[in-house]
Amino acid sequence: MPREHYLNATYGIRSWLLTTDHKRIAMLYLVSVTFFFFIGGAFATMIRIHLLTPTGLLVTPETYNKLFTMHGVAMIFFFLIPSIPAVLGNFLLPIMIGAKDLAFPKINLLSWYIYLIGGGFVLYSFSTGGLDTGWTFYTPLSSVYSNSAVTPAVIGVFINGFSSILTGLNFIVTVHTMRAPGMTWFRMPLFVWAQYATSIIFILGTPVIAITLLLAGMERMFHLGFFNPALGGDPILFQHLFWFYSHPAVYIMILPAMGVISEIIPTFARKPIFGYSFIAASSIAIAVIGFFVWAHHMFLTGQSTYSALAFSLLSYLVAIPSAVKVFNWTSTLYKGSISYDTPMLYALGFIGLFLIGGLTGLFLACLGLDIHIHDTYFVVAHFHYIMVGGAVMGYVGGLHFWWPKITGKLYPEFLARVAAVILFIGFNLTFFPQFLLGYLGMPRRYSSYPPEFQVLNVMSTAGASILALGYLLPMIYLTWSMRYGKVAGRNPWPATGLEWQTDSPPPTENFDVTPEVTWEPYDYENRPDLGLAIEGAPTHAHGDD
Amino acid sequence: MVYITLISLFFGVAITAAIVYFFFKYRRTHPEQLGVPIHGDMRLETAWIVVPALLAMTMFAWGAVVYVDYRRAPVDTLDIYVIGKQWMWKAQQPTGLKEINELHVPVGRDVKLILASEDVIHDFSVPAFRVKMDVVPGHYNTMWFRPTKVGRYHFFCSQYCGTNHSLMGGWVTVMEPTDYAAWLSGASEGNENPVLAGEKLFADKACITCHLSDGRGRAPSLNGVYGAKVLLADGSTVTADEGYIRESILEPKAKIVAGYQPLMPSFQGQMTEEQILNLTAYIKSLQSQPVPATGSGIAPATGKK
Amino acid sequence: MSEHQSEHHIVSPAIYSVIFGVLMICTILTVVAAEIDLNQYFGGLNIIVALTIAVFKASLVVLFFMHAKYSPKRTQMVIVASIFWLGIMLFMTMSDYVTRLWS
Amino acid sequence: MHRTGELFGQYKTLEQQRETASLGMWIFLSTEVLFFGGMFMTYTLNRSTYPDIFSEASKTINLWLGAVNTVVLIASSLTMAMAVWSSQVGKKKLLTVFLVATLVLGCVFLGIKSVEYHEKYVEHHIPGWNYQFEPGADVSTNAHTQLFFSLYFAMTGLHALHMIVGAGLLLWLIRQSIRGRFTPEYNTPVENIGLYWHFVDIVWIFLFPLLYLIDRH
């Protein structure tokens, strides 16, 4: 390990709380999003235990409503959205393009503080009785009828939005102006492309949810009227504005995870990624088309039939770039040199789960079918496959992949593989039964349900306990490895990106000398510096077929 | 449904199989081994953009046909008014019979539900019939279905609406038409006929002083207005459905009939959702040749057009 | 380094004054137009006139006061993108409400 | 803290630093477009639903105050543009003069705005609080005009808030300018705050016809 690096360059609590080093800010985010993941996870556990019996085992309907609302708010706004961009993106994006830091380091720190303030408001709302509007805050329930602590939560989410905006702004400007010599657009790692696409959504979508929640909040606090039907306002308009952001927000969660997968797969197949430019372009396509599909959340609100037709068609279009990614990842495996290291297990698990999540999306985008499965557990299962099976798997896989770079230490490989398998099994057991529940007609957000749904609910709860174990394991051994893990070296896998050219952990300025990029991305065959078999040794055991 | 499932299954299984196969076939056998450098293939890329796109379009088209059919109710339906409020459902049969958290319908007949909410957004959902529709405060949504089998089926509120959302459900009872008629006449004693109640409101609220039936009043005659195309002052036309009638009561200035002055006061806040429904039922019963409201049986005087 | 931009362009006070003059004239025009019933000639003409003038004024401010006319392509892309996204929101949402009355 | 004109560690050249800051500002403004956009959307829908009542309600706000404010704000944009020019050509004294002029005009705008708000307060036109559109107005007029005034206060209020933030930024600029910090080589803060100020002006250019003018005749 290097003698001096970003972790030990300076000491003391001030050196962390006032840092402008993107790597340290990433660590601050890592700690805070993990905290919210725990909170959201605790709520999820209670939800699943409660649903063991048809009448509800644990809490009153009112409390149950608060549990799933707080689960959604904590997980979506304070874990999933910031997780990969603000932790992995923050840490890696400047290093990957050969920059010393993000374009605006102070704004980067500011965005973490904004996140904390927003999180503070939300925690205040949780602790003063919680809120029961659903994370979607639909009016007029949220703005007029609910008696719970909606106002601080809305303020918290509103404030948190600016954290996302500033992160997105920082990333876009950094990618445009801070690239190292030779780092052309098409030499950038696909993770950077994914972050760039995500940032587009951050800066063009987030302000809309901010103003929408502000309007709903003002309606609640000052009895103004924007969406209130009692004054002639239209509650459906709130949904339009809400989903204008919140549907693209799903892509905020999944796009960076796709970026992580696009890094892991070529590394552990030791070959260039199949169709680099198609994967890069599909990220941008998802970000842009993703803005045209929002009203598929509203097919049954009384939306115009014509508009429903348009939104359904566009929703099918957004499936194409996602499919392109999956096909390209799969093709990358062909004639690879595939290892079974933990990040690769996560990546392959991601593809499988994302495949199910994506394909069930086709069911929901289908107008005729949506009539039946809209607002049922089918939807719950679908988006958990995308968000947990996709985004969280990508996040945890990415953490493992870059853990040696972040901490300079290796995690215990065997334990990590076991955890990955447990997560995969637990996840499927938890959420696959929910597809069936939804198809049988169980509506979502129900604290009690007809007895015929019990068997599947019990299966789901059983899966959830396995899943919880699966999440606890990495938290324990990753923390353990920070102190006791084996020293990793610069490039343990080895991988081709610029981040692996510097020390682990990197120095505060990332590189001792500004790197100059002469390689194409994932170009294993032309990288003698990696010390892999180039001449003599067969490039592939099956080289002839 | 089967179609999408098959296609999804095909792709799901095929890709998973490919991954698993590659995973074992091309495993690393030597620690320094490299993969074969393949960068991409234009033909493959094109194929897997075009083929899924075409398949997706067929899915879209099938779903669109079903949806359009669902959103456009057939003529000659049995119209039942359903009001959602936190946390119960009130249904009103054409005879005026009111039910709470229950809904009785005859088998084999197209049933149209006209949905209104008194507070927040609800959603009336009958999984067994594969139908649901949001119930939005401030305007009507409609849904329709044709029950094909006698029995009792769950209905739920599917749009989260507050504390007792999960208790806001009940049963749809599908009966033989004769049983249904018997049930209606047996249970309907003491219930107010919505058309008659609406007629009374029409007089009490002084609608009758302007909306003269011979068309010579200060406001247009409402005979036969339901289902007709109405020419508006700005030159456009609208079809006078339940939503239009409701809007005209609450927002009389929003759509002025050509040739008339915007004189009518708004009744916003002065009528309950139920009264509005009754008034609507009465206006719907006013045909060009006035038909006396019979108020019994399964052939209501409403909705015939 | 990324794409290199040309020399910083300085807009002269003379241009600023002319633009300011045009903006003032437009302000007077729009107030006067609002006092006349243009809708009698063509439904909604009042709105069209008021918004056309507003768009014209805003364009002048963006192009000259904010130097967008002399800015790098990248900046102009940002401007176009933000207007385009605003358009998505307005157009797609209104398309729902407008087509509800079609039968 | 840092001294102005310094090259920050993460950049290689001053030119790169300047470009980066400018791009960052523009992207920030694009988020502002969407931020106000949500309100414009709400306005568009409600206006198209209740055109007559919105026109009734807009007749009660004071056109002349609005028109004067438009002139004041555009004039402040001119002085801001001139301030940017002064910094580009290195006229340090003139820069301070124009910045102060901009600040003064901005304050005049806010002053006139508060007069308007006061009028609305006197007329009981503050929604949700003692609201009464006109004596004898019927229920639906009272309800829908509240939609208009809710939008009026939300839109102009948020705009005014941006003005206040802008005034704060101007104060800081004036302080720096008096110290002679800005040179033709280093004037990024002047340019960026100028961009912000012009953007706020543009928002008003749309608010004025939408709230005061349409169908007023």
Task: Tell me what the structure shows.
The complex is a heterotetramer of chains A (545), B (305), C (103) and D (217). Chain A starts with 12 loop residues before the first helix and ends in a 61-residue tail after the last helix. With 545 residues, chain A is an all-alpha fold. In chain A, α3 runs parallel beside α6 (150-177) and α11 (342-365) runs parallel beside α14 (413-440). The model of chain A is unreliable at 536-545 (pLDDT under 50). Chain A is globular and about 70 Å long. Chain A has helices at 13-17, 22-50, 61-96, 105-127, 141-145, 150-177, 190-222, 235-269, 276-289, 305-333, 342-365, 367-373, 377-407, 413-440, 454-484. By secondary structure, chain B is α+β, with helices and mostly antiparallel strands. Chain B folds into three domains: 1-13 and 41-63, no CATH class; 78-187, Immunoglobulin-like, CATH 2.60.40.420; 194-285, Cytochrome c-like domain (Cytochrome Bc1 Complex, Chain D, domain 2, Orthogonal Bundle). Chain B has six helices and twelve strands. In chain B, α4 crosses α6 and α5 (242-250) packs across α6 (273-285). Mean pLDDT of chain B is 83; it is low at 289-305. Chain C has two domains: 11-69; 71-103. Chain C is built from three helices and no strands. Chain C is 69% helix and 0% strand. Chain C is flat, with a radius of gyration of 19 Å. Chain C has helices spanning 13-35, 45-65, 73-99. Chain C is mainly alpha-helical. Chain D is mainly α. Chain D has one domain: Four Helix Bundle (Hemerythrin (Met), subunit A) (Up-down Bundle). Helices cover 78% and strands 0% of the residues of chain D. Chain D has helices at 14-49, 51-59, 63-89, 92-122, 139-178, 188-213. In chain D, α1 runs antiparallel to α5, α3 (63-89) runs antiparallel to α4 and α5 (139-178) packs antiparallel against α6. The model of chain D has no long low-confidence stretch (mean pLDDT 89). Chains in contact: A-B, A-C, A-D, B-C, B-D, C-D. At the B-C interface, loops of B face loops of C.
User: Using only CA atoms, what is the Rg of chain C?
Assistant: 19 Å
Apparent shape of chain B: elongated
**What is the helix tally of chain C?**
3
Rounded mean pLDDT of chain C is: 87
What is the 3D form of chain C? flat
Name of the CATH first level of the largest domain in chain B: Mainly Beta
Strand order across the largest sheet of chain B: 3-2-1-5-8
Core attributes:
heterotetramer, A: 545 residues, mainly alpha, Cytochrome C Oxidase, Chain A, 15 helices, 66% helix, globular, disordered C terminus, C: 103 residues, 2 domains, 3 helices, 69% helix, flat, disordered N terminus
